[in-house]
Design brief:
Length: about 300
């Protein structure tokens, strides 16, 4: 298996034994150190930053590590899509972005809904370890954990001699206090409603009857496909064999950009499908989006 896991293509859930996960690995210092010290375990890093992912991939290859995997996705969706319940031994978050402003708190990695999904995937007896220099964020995370009602919670001030990560090094240099919150899972978390998406095995093309001049109407439109599900269209390109439409689908906060192609099959007959050059996560709403474009053409 390659270090990089393409979450759009891979068979889910992943079945990786002795699995631990780091959220937001940055330069990769911590995950690489863990992997070297524990060759019998597997480590999976989830990152939003493409640059970080590429750096980790190069490092893993250079150092010949066989027990490090990673993907680029928001950690919530990474856990939601990739792992089975009760399958992850430990979860680490080192200096995640604490989103200081109150109105941004809902973006924090440790809101009850996110922590709920991380906790479901964590094995009972496993730990979530969070390091931060931001006491307000630590308290916020502690509150979310208490709400889930399934942890032994401990908080300590760290006295670090060898910094684990780039940010730890930085905060130490600036003389900041550092904290570690440890959440030990003792049982099932209290249910928290959380965003969901549903994958499908395959996407089906949509046959449509429409005049060629109707396609212009698809440009720069917005469609509401369901609760918290929106399709936006942007530019339309006309080609010899049909059209290409630039689209953005947002479903419960998961979003993907892709192109829909319309291929001419006969007089006023078209087939709509996701362009083969767009790699997508196949979801029910993506199928709905193709259908909706078809309906708009026939309206
Ligand atoms: C402040 S940096 C810390 C990096 C590293 N852990 C360290 O201590 O040096 C936070 C990292 O978390 C990543 N990150 C933030 N939110 C994330 C999310 N929702 N899912 C995955 N990664 C995330 C960012 O891209 C960034 O690399």
């Amino acid at each position: 298996m390659l270090c990089y896991v393409n979450y759009k293509r891979v068979k889910k859930p992943l079945r990786i034994p002795n699995l631990e996960v780091e959220i937001g690995f940055g330069r990769g210092d911590f995950i690489v150190k863990l992997a070297k010290e524990n060759p019998e375990k597997n480590f999976f890093g989830i990152e939003l930053s493409q640059v970080s992912v590429e750096k980790l991939m190069r490092r893993v290859q250079r150092e010949g590590l066989k027990n490090v995997f990673c993907t680029r996705i928001d950690a919530y969706w990474g856990f939601y899509l990739l792992f089975e319940d009760e399958s992850v031994f430990n979860i680490y978050m080192n200096y995640p972005d604490p989103w200081f402003k109150k109105r941004h708190h809902k973006r924090r990695l440790t809101t009850p809904e996110r922590l709920y999904v991380f906790t479901k995937r964590l094995k009972t007896g496993g730990r979530i370890e969070i390091r931060s220099d931001d006491y307000d964020f630590i308290r916020f995370s502690e509150e979310s954990a208490s709400f889930l009602g399934c942890f032994d919670i401990s908080l300590e001030e760290l006295s670090v001699r060898e910094p684990l990560t780039k940010y730890e090094e930085k905060w130490l240099r600036e003389g900041r206090k550092l904290y570690r919150l440890i959440l030990l899972k003792r049982g099932e978390p209290r249910f928290v409603p959380h965003p969901t998406i549903r994958e499908v095995e395959a996407l089906f093309p949509e046959k449509v009857k429409a005049k060629r001049n109707k396609f212009g109407e698809l440009e720069n439109r917005e469609f509401k496909l369901g609760q918290s599900v929106y399709l936006k269209t942007f530019k339309l390109w006309e080609r010899e064999e049909g059209f290409l439409i630039e689209c953005l689908l947002t479903e419960s906060g998961y979003y993907q950009k892709f192109f829909v192609q319309a291929k001419r099959k006969g007089e006023d007959e078209w087939v709509l499908d996701v362009s083969p050059y767009s790699e997508v996560l196949k979801t029910e709403n993506l199928q709905r989006a193709i259908r909706e474009l078809g309906k708009a053409l026939q309206a």
